[in-house]
């Protein structure tokens, strides 16, 4: 009887021990996978922040904006972050885009910019890309393109279309034609 009781006690002890080991190993596995997931997502965030900023990646200075149901990016940088090289050009670019946005929001029919404005913005974007190759100018391009498209839409809306020409009626024919005097000498 003592042997059976001892076997049962040892058997239940090994079962409890096995469950305890299983519980500990499961906890270790869950903890390890959570740590790995946290590390890999942090690594992905670091990769995005150090990746080529000219690519379409997340930029902390870009916020989405909408106008008439269409989304466009707004990239505005704190003045303290605008260091040389290219800092002055970036500030000018953002100021010009800000003027365009204010003009667009102020009046739904007012002009936003001129062809000269769009040319200045493109030149400025090229200068920024040349002077500061790691600076992401794509949001500036997208925002400027949005304003230019909105300006074209407004221009198209305000340009009067040529009136449709109604079919012209044939000239009225007099009821009686005037008599032609006979030529002399005939």
TrEMBL record:
Highest taxon of source: Bacteria
Residues in the signal sequence: 1-18
Annotated Low complexity bias: 158-186
Keyword terms, alphabetized: Signal
Region of interest: Disordered: 155-186
Signal in keyword set: yes
The protein, known as: Uncharacterized protein
